[in-house]
Design goal:
Distance between the termini: 27 Å
Oligomer: single chain
Helix content: over 70%
Structural class: mainly alpha
Largest sheet: 2 strands, antiparallel
Radius of gyration: 23 Å
Length: about 300
Amino acid sequence: MVNLLKNEWMKIFRRPGTYVMIAILIGITLMVGIFSKYQESDVAVDKNWEQTLQQENKALNDQMKQTKMDFKKEITINNYRIEHNIPPREKYHVWSFVKDASQLIILAGLFTIIVSAGIVASEFNWGTIKLLLIRPINRSKILASKYLTVLLYALLMLAILFVFSTLLGAILFGMPDQAVPYLNYSNGQVTEQNIVVHLMINYGLSSIDTIMLATMAFMISSVFRNSSLAIGLSIFLLFTGAQFTLLLAMKFSWAKYLLFANTDLSQYFEGIPMLDGMTLSFSIIMLLVYFFIFQFLAFFVFNKRDIAS
């Protein structure tokens, strides 16, 4: 299996497109950093932030009475800031930039989907699949090595984004003057969390969408041997799946069984579940169900397919 992984890894890095994708990710992160540096001077720190938060809480309470919308999270966090002297807007620093740069995880996901969609289909298109399967190696091991390579590539893209944004943020904005906690809200309580730990957790949770869609693209690539279909459908769902699911959730309770209703696990830590009855364990089970369906289809069809056809 190790040799198969090495072989797949070398195939990826023999393609110029791999270096282009890495360069694009680094280049866009650099542009975001320069733009953020340019905008930094326009953001002023509010010296009377306690009074501002008190006024904001009053406005949120009035709005809750009029619209019945839930702003308990915002109000509780504002009160915690006032009680513990934690201003809501501090001087922009490295971790502020890393958090903003996490929006580019979707770009890393896009590149991972492209690799995942082509890693099997390209073997059929180029005719190299026959050379690969004449070896005395189980087909499942070959396919598993390709999928593990996709996961490693996704991890590489996330690591590049996190490390480069950290280095760039430290150069452009510097380190914070003191430890900056992240305020977590859960079950009506506010807790402080180390900002670096929070960012790493955030990167991990934000990559679930990428992993699931890359797995789906991998399945389509294995079943239909068509990288264009896998890329097109996966990218379409990457950008629109959550929005469509949210619209369906407004009218139908069965929307909670859809994939994109469950990919955002942060809703259980920092927000409110999309639908009543949804829990963290429910979403994890649904993700596992979709994951095993995708993998079953990919491995079943790949193992049964007549390569000569």
